[in-house]
Amino acid sequence: MHSLRNEQGKSLRKNFVFKVIMMLNPDGVSRGYYRLDTMACNLNRMYLNPSKTDNPTIWAARKAVV
User: Fold this and answer.
1) How far, in Å, are 2, 13, 15, 20, 64 from residue 8 at the CA level?
2) Is 2 exposed, middle or buried (0-12, 13-18, 19+ CB in 10 A)?
3) Per residue, what are the HEC states of 16-27?
4) pLDDT tens for residues 13-59?
5) Which of 13, 17, 38, 56 has the fewest beta carbons closer than 10 A?
6) What Å distances lie between residue 5 and 2, 9, 14, 33, CA to CA?
7) Residue 36 has what pLDDT?
8) How many Cα neighbours within 13 Å face the side chain of 62?
9) For the chain, what are the domain ranges?
10) What Å distances lie between residue 53 and 37, 45, 59, CA to CA?
11) Between 40 and 2, residue with greater pLDDT
């Protein structure tokens, strides 16, 4: 079992690039808003076309991934 997981891990690392993105909304989460930022903007709706000035964390995450 261990060697199968090791081979799977090697295959994944060989064929994919993994990017770890930390929490994008720490200010909102600290206030209890898990989808909203501090300006009450639902960040889950901003991924397709984020604004660099209004949604800088989503904009930067999208730029890093796409």
Assistant:
1) 10, 9, 11, 19, 25
2) exposed
3) CCCCCCCCCCHH
4) 999 999 988 888 888 888 888 888 878 888 889 989 999 999 898 99
5) 17
6) 5, 6, 14, 38
7) 84
8) 15
9) 22-66
10) 13, 16, 9
11) 40
